[in-house]
Amino acid sequence: MPTYDYKCTKCGHTFEEFQSISASRLTKCPKCKGKVERVIGKGSGIIFKGTGFYETDYKRKSPGCSGGKSSCSGCPNKKD
Predict the structure, then answer these.
(1) What residues make up the domain containing 33?
(2) Are 21 and 1 in contact (CB under 8 A)?
(3) What is the Cα–Cα distance from 72 to 56, expressed in whole angstroms?
(4) What's the predicted TM-score (pTM) here?
(5) Does 19 fall in a domain?
(6) What backbone torsions phi and psi does residue 56 show, to the nearest 5 degrees?
(7) What Rg, from alpha-carbon coordinates, does the chain have?
(8) Cα distance between residue 39 and residue 16, in whole Å
């Protein structure tokens, strides 16, 4: 669910509200009960989760393949 930014047109109070996309917009300021407008937010930054990338994350060559020698049978890198 996204976080929306609102600003009161009466008192200038700005606040964020965590709402679902299908929820209707807020209309009243929580401080003065004045009219609020939804403003364009800053968005969010990129979040990296996990411990990183490792050699084991990538497809390996065939066992015993040396990358192009004719002795690699069935290897896509085989050069004759």
Answers:
(1) 1-42
(2) yes
(3) 22
(4) 0.51
(5) yes
(6) -75, -10
(7) 28
(8) 10
